[in-house]
Amino acid sequence: MLNRAVNYVKAHRLPFFIVFAVLVLAFPIIIPSNFVRGIAVRTVLYMLFASSLNLINGYCGHFSIGHAGFMCIGCYTAGLLATKAGLGFWLIVPISGIVTSLFGLLVFLPTNRLSGMYLSIVTLGFAEIVRIIVLNWTSLTNGPLGVKGIPSIKLFGLKLTSTTEYYYVILFLLVLSLFCMYRILHSRVGRAWMSIRENPDAACSLGVELAKYKAINFVVGAFFCGVAGCFMAFYYRYIDTTMFTIDESFNVLSMVIVGGMGTLVGPILGAFVINLITETFRFASEYRMLLYGILIILTMWIRPQGIAGASNSVLATKRMAKRVQSAAKAKRSEA
Amino acid sequence: MYILESRKVSKHFGGLKAVDQVDMQVEKGEIFGIIGPNGAGKTTFFNLCAGTYPVTSGEILFNGANTTNKPPHEMARLGLARTFQNIKLFDYMTVEENIAVGFHIHTRTNVFDAVLHTRRYKNDEALIRERTAEILEFVGLTPYAKVKASNLSYGIQRKVEIARALVLKPSLLLLDEPAAGMNPSETQELLTFVRKLNADGYTIVVIEHDMKFIMNLCDRILVLNYGKKICEGTPEVVKNNAAVAEAYFGKGLAVNGGNADA
Ligand SMILES: Nc1ncnc2c1ncn2[C@@H]1O[C@H](COP(=O)(O)OP(=O)(O)OP(=O)(O)O)[C@@H](O)[C@H]1O
Ligand SMILES: [Mg+2]
Questions:
Q1: Do A206 and B104 touch (CB under 8 A)?
Q2: Residue limits of CATH 3.40.50.300 in chain B
Q3: Cα(B64) to centroid of ligand 2, in Å?
Q4: Helix or strand or coil: residue B227?
């Protein structure tokens, strides 16, 4: 069922895309409720976070489970630069990206010999360390009180104040980021990443420098996370470390898993679905985590590669291989 | 000067001497065979030459330079290409994309070039498109360009792997059991193909169990058994060597004349 629906959409890309684009652009105008517009801004923001995580988890064989660490660094870099140095949003966007990507390199370098589960655990530890340092470095970060009074985004000297305006800003950042990601993935660099994901030995035998390209992968993924983190700071105007707990890492990770790794659409869909659930089931508070759990298990069961994931994502491969085998067996027994 | 030379190369896995003091000289332009019973250490020896494993002792020289323990990606840049015994393709990438990865060392596009579509990116992509088409034509894989590697038959996958290695423009090509799993006509085709590559100037080292294939193809052959070199020479010499016959068929046959060709 789900497979067929996905294939149908794949076969009729253009019309779906046009309808979709119009809906997305007109959304804050059509919807009268400011509350719903706020949800839309958060959803698009998470689409960017999820896309940046997907770059790391979907293409190069990494499996980071500590994305909140990068989110925290991006967000705090922006918050501090805005309040302490008085820099404007558009200048901070790239700075925040670059600072976060440097931290990406910092996590990766000492661990470049680790792989698989080990690297995953390092990312988790890294996220917690970042959060604890930020929480306790009171002189710089204001500790548990958080960073307050982040000014609003200015565009051509005008202050942006309405949710609708912020919606268009984050939409712009998302589209720009996806555009860059698309171009990177369809180049020598993206192919090197995918070759490492598919078969590191073969990649190496063709001259692909494994450590270097894995590091670049982390750096680029962290960069886009920093960009999103910058917007997050300016949108919420107030940030503290409770926003970057392990729960948050798993929140973004579940978007990537449910939507599907290794394609650009996957995390977009995943962020949409997960945010929809988060908002709809707000009354259930913590019990929503249960729902995520069930959703992830269901995804792995029905469509291991996620709603729109490449069939070769880390999680999907084993199940897919089993399926192919049993299908082949079935065919043989028919003949 | 030899194109590939090993001097008393050993590799131990714990107590197991997988490769033991092996000397080998491969001359430029020849087709050099490596044979030996299962577990003789042939693949391990290949991996030492290609830098996949560090050696326990000994030296490897490639084109006269000492390349002992250089990592595989550096060996690739120096002009050594290889295929694997258990085919290693990028399964979920198309044949075209598999080949494109082979251009890694001949192109220089970085992240910024890719985002901005600079001249370097455009030149690189143009080069890849053009040469991929050529290579696919050369090995007769053009119809499969857009097919995912995992959907191809075994014989075709082998070809893709060789094609991908050729993209490096290597001076030396290491083939690990290229005929494994092929039927006789495919094997025959492969033989012609390898000869053609050799005529085009590639030096080739090949591991193979198919005796007819090896004897027909190679200028010289090295025989390994339990990690040790037991014989080296032309197919004629190897065929008539008592130690080789013994390694393959046991003592009994060796005493009765020892013609390993039987
Ligand atoms: N990574 C490894 N760790 C431990 N032992 C190994 C490793 N690789 C190979 N060996 C052992 O080294 C010996 C030589 O193996 P190798 O694969 O080189 O043999 P081979 O000559 O290629 O055999 P075949 O003809 O079956 O391919 C075998 O006993 C094998 O079990
Ligand atoms: Mg072998």
A1: yes
A2: 1-79+170-262
A3: 26
A4: coil
Averaged over successive runs of 10 residues, the pLDDT of chain A (335 residues) comes to 75 84 87 89 96 94 92 96 91 96 90 77 93 92 88 85 91 96 96 94 95 94 97 94 91 90 90 88 77 80 68 49 56 53
pTM: 0.89
CB atoms A310 and B92 under 8 Å: yes
Sequence letter at residue B230: I
Find the angle CA(A235)-CA(A77)-CA(A230) to the nearest 5 degrees.
30
Pairing assessment for the beta strands B172-176 and B80-82 based on DSSP bridges: parallel
Do residues B9 and B25 lie in contact, with contact meaning Cβ atoms separated by under 8 Å? Answer: no
Q: In the numeric block, which tokens belong to residue A44?
A: 């698009």
pLDDT digits (tens, 9 = 90+) for B75-109: 999 999 999 999 999 998 999 999 999 999 999 99
Please give the residue that has the higher pLDDT: either B134 or B241.
B134
Cβ neighbours for B126, distance < 8 A, ≥ 6 positions apart: none
Residue B262 has pLDDT above 50, yes or no: no
DSSP letters spanning A38-99: HHHHHHHHHHHHHHHHHHHHHHSS-----HHHHHHHHHHHHHHHHHHS---HHHHHHHHHHH
Q: Which two tokens stand for residue B190?
A: 């492969």
Question: Is the shortest distance between the CB of B12 and ligand 1 below 6 Å?
Answer: no
The CATH class given to the B1-79+170-262 domain equals alpha beta
Judged by a CB distance cut-off of 8 A, whether residue A183 touches chain B is yes
Residue B52 CB less than 6 A away from ligand 1? no
**Other residues' Cβ atoms within 10 Å of the Cβ of residue B118:** 14
Ligand 1 contacts CB of residue B225 (under 6 A): no
